[in-house]
Amino acid sequence: MNEPPVSIEPIRVRYGETDQMGHAYYGNYMLWFEQARGKWCRDHGFTYKQLEEMGYKLPVVEVWTRYSGEIKYDDLIEVRIQVEEIKRASIKFVYEIFNTETDKAVTKAYTWHVFVGSEMKAISIPPQIRELFGF
Fold first, then answer.
1. In whole angstroms, what is the distance from residue 28 CA to residue 35 CA?
2. Among 62, 49, 57, 63, which residue's Cα sits nearest to residue 122?
3. At 106, phi and psi to the nearest 5?
4. Residue range 46-99, pLDDT digits in tens
5. Is residue 60 part of a domain?
6. Is the four-CA dihedral 84, 132, 125, 38 of positive or negative sign?
7. Which residues are catalytic, by number?
8. Which pLDDT value is given to residue 8?
9. Which of 135, 118, 129, 78 is nearest to 101 (CA)?
């Protein structure tokens, strides 16, 4: 089986994204993951906004993150994202953050999302959406 394609979102860490110790504040990683998901969608020929306009949303229902290296102010990082698993009504994105200053992976993470319709209840992912997602 082929590896799913990886999307890469470069991010320059802003001063306001760091804590008193000069390290990237852990809560900002979730924003970077969201930004990378937007990039992943665009790389697959659609935007998240277009998905919403079709009547669908993908709320996050689970997050796991392992921090294994430093990210500091003004570092250039790359958030690498791909879909690892897709089920009847859910999808798992996996992330790896590389610090391009050190060329090391410094964070691994995943998010699970449930596919919901206009009534905000889980629904089976429609075939045309699976196609957009490459499945």
1. 11
2. 57
3. -120, -10
4. 999 999 999 999 999 999 999 999 999 999 999 999 999 999 999 999 999 999
5. yes
6. positive
7. 19
8. 97
9. 78
**87, 75, 94: which is closest to 114 by C-alpha?**
87
Report the C-alpha gap between 59 and 63 in whole angstroms: 11
Range of the domain at 24: 7-132
Mean pLDDT of the chain: 94
Confirm if 66 and 108 have CB atoms less than 8 A apart.
Answer: yes
CATH number, domain of 98, equals 3.10.129.10
SS3 16: helix
* Residue 40 is assigned to a structural domain of this protein: yes
Contact 116, 56 (CB under 8 A): yes
In a domain, 123, yes or no: yes
Number of structural domains, the chain?
A: 1
